[in-house]
Each structure stands twice: as structure tokens, then as C-alpha cells.
């Protein structure tokens, strides 16, 4: 299926905050109550529409454990958006946000849009992190903030789509260099009807044919 | 090693086949390759090619390796074969390289080879400037074009795409792809774009992964850099089988196995170690990882994120891929013959064994997915669901358990499930299951009755809850009408209340009245006590209720109500029934104990009412009621009676030795004594007064000690709670990296102690023989305690050893500060 743009996302955060469940809810529209630990990096994709344009989201769901940090770090580069997730019922996951943010800013491109997500909002009775605290952290670090629930699907679509809108706006403003694949953005056939063919040798990057993952 | 983080269950087996002797291979094997040939009838065969140092090519066929083994010699007298590659239609490409880097490429059709010497179908000598590092051959696209890729160590790629000509060099083109040595080439799918066919070719170099799009003429249409990584070199690669438009490249690096599609990176499987071999057929990823003892064969079910086999292999030569079969060829190191190889067949267990293994390992969800994937019978899935439901029920996931049970309807007998949900705490779950069952054909009338019973039980539960609310929350008593609107049962209570207010009890029989109060009395009293009391008083005054004690038993739990009623009855009835006075006294004493009336009230009552003083005293003692000093005029008389009869009871016991055994502290015995006392006319209650008083004092002492114990326990609970609170506020972070026993990186399963010592569970078992990790706390701390706490007894014992040298060494070992040079030691020296 053809698309105008392809945005690459990365989902990061402590182990057990619900990163994989968010991805599963977004791509498959289902919730798995018992989810296995992610060992490495999982991959998902979905097509969305923004401003009448088809946009393909390719999402890397990373392992939250410290042991896999070296693997997951290599995925920062080449991502246009990041979903930084914490669990509202576990304060320590909120306390570790600074470390995650530093890691993301250090290894990603400077224009990467980061959405802060307080997941498990359905478990309000067990809440340890107030919504206001999440908002304050996001304000302080220039992030977009949302509380979501992968179980009830509340705000899950919005989280992914709003991030895509931010990226799209940045493209319109010319902030992103869309010809540089390292920014995590690719132009599809809808946006560029004729694909510029690269010479047979040398040079990296360039547009490629559209296609489904 | 991150492989231990994976869930693991053995669903594959490595079957040892008879060793094969490749006696005709009497030289070192320089290159090998294998393929997977899919026949028209759907079966697949594979072919293995081994090239030796003498220029011989040995072909082994999967069907019957011994019977179909062909060896032939390459027609050219060139240096040994350096690289070889085999297409799925059995076209073999072999490559030799001269000292001047010239490449000699020959193509053989293995389907035609029958003799020992066979001419090649195409050949060429191609000039090159660097060392050939990798070769891959395949037939691609609908036109079955012969594609050959040769990677060079400077990053160049030689590509042939087209029909085979006698002179291959006509179609070979050179492309500069990477900046480092190429160590992987995989031909992907063919995409038709209008009239042009585009072929995807994945190229892997030491520090880069590329996807190039080739057109029909073998020209590069586009190149995508999928990854560039200078820190961790790529080690080997494979392409997912079968090759479709979704086929993806799998690259092994030391830290993990990475997947790439033609556009970008995909999933990553964290398997650490140097990768020797990778293969991905359908959903099974086979990886061979080099270890210090040889190689580790790992099979991963990538759909379920599950390691399905982990086996050690030594001296691996190669792995052949077959029809869901893999043949592992390894050198037999135990054999004297150097040409003997072990052949192991890697085979998936049959479905029954797999399902049984998964259920044993509580992986029911994976078992269900497996059955679904294999299209197994519905019945099998139902039994797995039954087991899964049972497992979830034990774990406390009731809703999910019922969801699984519901899917067994029609296969599993409802009895098996109903019997598990009969407990009242599963009532809602049972209702849920029964509702689904009744929609199916297997439902019976009995099931309908059961569902009705469940509903009744639910109502009863609700009613009890409501009553609890009424009892504990007085503010809600006024909400009587509101509650009645909600509950059918409560509405019948309203009817009862209305009936009570308008009822004409004058003609009613006492038994009928009592039955009415037995049914509704307690509830009516709890919701409207004042009016209820008035009604009952009027019934008593009007002689509708004659036996008041019988009536009071209904409300025995409410002493205040009973006392009110009884006092009214005594006052208005002008009765002198002693029984009623005692009963009233007991009620007053119980109210006094609950701090509802004062001591003075009771003393006034005792003075006012003609009661036998000794009985009054016994009752007062029973309720620990004290008369105080001089409050009671007759107190002196009571004391006198007590003195006179002091030894009377003991004398009676002496006369009746049978009763002596009852003089124990056992409360049951005391009750028996009292029973006998009441039945014996010879013994009066006042006779046992002293012994009862003594008993009460003893009980008082016991009670005191119990109160003290309770206080101690409360203090203990408080201190434990504060400790827990402390841990909650100051949680301990476990960041240990190494096991404190073996000093190796921690891997699962491991045990963490609060003292910040961590161990592998296995290390604990092997080194300390602990059966459970929490058997004796932290083993290191235990050892430290042993070391620091001086064991004088032990040192004494050791110093008295028979062996003089041992004794002296023991003395020195125990430390100079503890050295007591006894006369005995002095003698030895």
C-alpha cells in the first residue's frame, strides 16, 4: 500500500510499563493481559491518515531491561518520534524518566518528537504518580504529554497520531530534512510521484519503493 | 548470557543417526554448501556439497545419504575450491582464486552428474583485485534467471543475473556496495513494477547492511543502507523462507540477531554470542552460537518468543535444511577415523508430545496457538482450554478462567467445570458459565435449576450485605423505603411492617405470633426498634405473649431490648417469679459490662428485688461485677454464709469420691460439676461458692497473663509494621551484576538477599546444597557469623586432637590472641 510519508517511532521506558501492550493495542486493537517480557526489539506497523495524507508508522518496541540497553540504543538513530512511557502505578518508572530522556537525546537526532505517556490510567485506584506531575515533567522538558490505557485503549490512538501530527507539522515547517533517512522519515510515492533512481554504485540513502513491511 | 532470559521448553529433539564414513574424502574440506529443493509433489529434498582440498566435489542427497552420494573432480586443475553455492534447482557454482586474485567460476548441473568426471555447463575466469569472501547462487523470478553474487573483501560485489551462457563473464557486473568485506548475499523476492521486474538483493558487509534493487539487466536501480554499525560486526546472515514479498533478512551479530526488510530494520532477538549459522524457515529460527565448549544449537519459535531447543554440539561442520528437518553434520571426535562424521537429525516433536510438554510447563496459551496453527481438532483445543481454565482458576484469574471454560462447551462435560465453580466465591463466575451453557445445545433442565439457585444465592448474599450495612451504619436505617425499592426481599419486610402496625393480634395464637417474630422479628427490630418495642409491649400486656422467656430467646443478641421488655413485664405484671428476676439481673449485668448502665443501677435493682443473695453473688462474680465497699447492706451476711460453708463442698467431695475427678481446672469439668450440683438436692449453690470464686480468681490471673501476651504481640506487630513501612519508604535496589559465589554475571534464575548478596540459584544448590533458596538465609552472611562468633567449644575440641601437628596447627589457626598455651600444648612442644 502506498503512502505519502513513512515515520519511524521508537517506544522506550522501564520494563513492565506497558510498551508492548500499547503497540499491540495500536496495531492490532487488542489487549493481552499477560504479556511476555520483550527480549530485544519488537516491530509493528500501521497506516494512519493526517491532513488527508496516508502516513505509514513503523514502530520499534524496545526491551525496558537494563541488560538490553546497548541493543535498544542502536534503534534511537533513525527514529522521528519516541514514545517515552511510564507506569502511573509505579513511581520508580516516573523517577527513571530523566535517565531515559538523556539517553534518547544523546543517541537520537535533535528534532525527534518525544511524547511522554503515563500508561495504565485505568488503574486509578493504584495511582502513584499524579497527572499534574506528568504534565509538569513534560512542560519542563518540552515534551507532549498524555495519559493512556492500553487495556481500555483510552488515548492510545491519540498518542501515536498526535506524535505523527507533530512530526508532520515539523516537516511542513521545514524543520526535518526529509532527504536524510537518519531523521526517521521517508517520502513515499504519494508525496513524490517519481522516485529518483540512484546510480548503480556508491552513495547512501535515497528514496525507495513503497511497500508493506 | 541473554539466552537465559527467554522462555524455554523442549519442543524439538536431536536424533542421532548412524555415523557416516566419508572415506573417499581424504583431504581437508575447503568449502561446503547445501540447498532445499521443493519437488512438484510438495516434498522437499536437500543436497549437501562438500569440496575438498584435492579438488573433489562430494554430493550427499537427503533421501538416503549413503545410497546417493556422488563424488566428482572439477575439470580444471586450479587451486582448491574456495567457495561454493547451490541453487534450489541443483546448479552448483564453485569458485577458485589464483594468487593474482583472478577468479575461476564454474557451474555444474548436479541433476546431470553421474560419472566421476563431469564437464561444467559454464565457466569463466574473471579478473579481480581483492579476495573473494562470499558467494551465493539462486534462480530468481518467474523467468528462473540464474543469479550469482560474489562478495569481495574491499566491499565490491560481482553480480550475474540472467540466463546461463557458456561464458559467464558476459553477464557479470561489478558494483561498489560497501566499505568493508562482504560476508553475506541473499536474493530476495521479485517485484513487478509495470513491465519492469525488480529483484531485491540483500548484501551484508562487516559493518553494513544494504538492500539493492536490480532490474532485468542486472543493473542496480536503487540502494538502501539498512544499517551501518562499526562497533559490532555482522557475522552471518540468512533470508526467511519461503521467499515471498514479505521475506526479510536475518543478520547475526555478537549481541543479537537483527531482522531487516527491504526498507528498514525490524525485530531483534537478543541472543548473545558469536553466530556461526542462521536459518529461518517459517517461524523457526535456527542459530548456532559459538561457545567455549564448541557450539550451541538454539531453535527459536519467533511467533511465540520461545526457545524450543538448546543443545551443545562439538566440531560442527554444517547444517542441511530439509522438509521441516535439519541435519547437523559434525565431526566425530571420538572416532579414530578422521573422516567419520556424526549426523544428527533436528526434528520437531509430534503435536501430542508438544502439547503435553507445553501444558506441563503451564504454557497453555502457546499450546492453543500451536493447535490453531496446525489446524488441530476442536476437541483437542477444548481439553487444553479446560486445563488452561483450571490453571487460571488456581492463579486467581477467575474471569479469564471462565472465558476459557466457556469455549469447552459442547466437548467437555459441564460437570467438570461446574464442580470447580461451586464455591460461593465463584458464584458470579458460575452464573457467567451457566448463561453461556444454557445457550448451547448441551444444556439440560438441571442446568437451568442450577442457574436459578445461583441467582438465589446471589440474592441471599446481597441481602446479608444489606443487613450488615444496616447493622453497622445507623444513618442508613432511615433509608428503609429506598432500600425496599431496590430489593424484592426487603419489600416483603415492608409488608411485614405494615402488617405489624395494622394487624389484630388479639385473636392470634401465641405460637402464630412467635412464628411471625421468628421470621421478621430481627429485621423489624433492626430497622424500627422503638415502634417495634411498643408493639411487643402491648402484646405482652394484652397477654397475647404469655411465655416471655421463650419470646426473649429470639432477641437474645439484643440485651437492651430484652431488658427493656422484661422490666416492663415485671413491673406491669406484678410477678414475683424469681427466674425472671435472675434473668433480668443477667441482662443488666451484660449491659453493665458493655458500659450501657451504671453499677448503681444494678445495686438499686438488687436491693429492690427479692433475690437470694448467694445467687446474686455468683451471678455478679460471673460478670466480674464488684459491689464496692458498703454499698450493699447484706454484704456482711454474704461473707458470713461464705465462711460457714467454706469447707462444706470439700466435705461433700470426700463423701462422694466420684466427684473428686471433677476438681480440675478444665472448664468442661467445671460445667459438669455445676450440672451435677444442680441435679443434686443435697448440694446447694452456696456450697460451691468458694470453689467457683477460686476458679474465677484463677481465670482472672490467666486473663491477665493473656492480656499481657496480647500486649506483647501487639508490640511485636507494631515493630514489624514499622520495619515494613521503613522498607516501603526506603526500598532496596538490587543492582548486583555478578553472582557472589561464582563471580560470573548474574543470569536467571537468581536469588537476591536483603543484605545485597546475590547468587545464581544453581550456585546455591551446588555449593551449599540448599533445597530452597530461603532455607538458611544468605549463605555468605551465615558464614561470616560463624567466623566472627567465637566457638570456644570447637577450639577446645580441636586443641585436644590426638595428632600433635594437627593440634598445634589448630591452635595457630584459631588465632594468636586466643592462644592458650596450656600445659598440654607445652608438653607437646
Structure characterization notes:
The complex is a heterodimer of chains A (213) and B (829). By secondary structure, chain A is α/β, with parallel strands linked by helices. Chain A is built from 6 helices and 7 strands; from the N terminus they run βαββαβααβαβαβ. Chain A has a single domain, classed as P-loop containing nucleotide triphosphate hydrolases (Rossmann fold). In chain A, strands 1, 2, 3, 4, 5, 6 and 7 form a 7-stranded mixed beta sheet that branches. The C terminus of chain A is likely disordered. Chain B is an alpha+beta fold. Helix content of chain B is 38%, strand content 26%. Chain B has a 5-stranded mixed beta sheet with strand order 1-26-25-24-23, with no helix packed on it. Chain B has a 4-stranded antiparallel beta sheet with strand order 2-29-28-27, with no helix packed on it. The interface between A and B is large, with 42 and 42 residues. β2 of chain A pairs antiparallel with β22 of chain B, so a sheet runs across the interface.
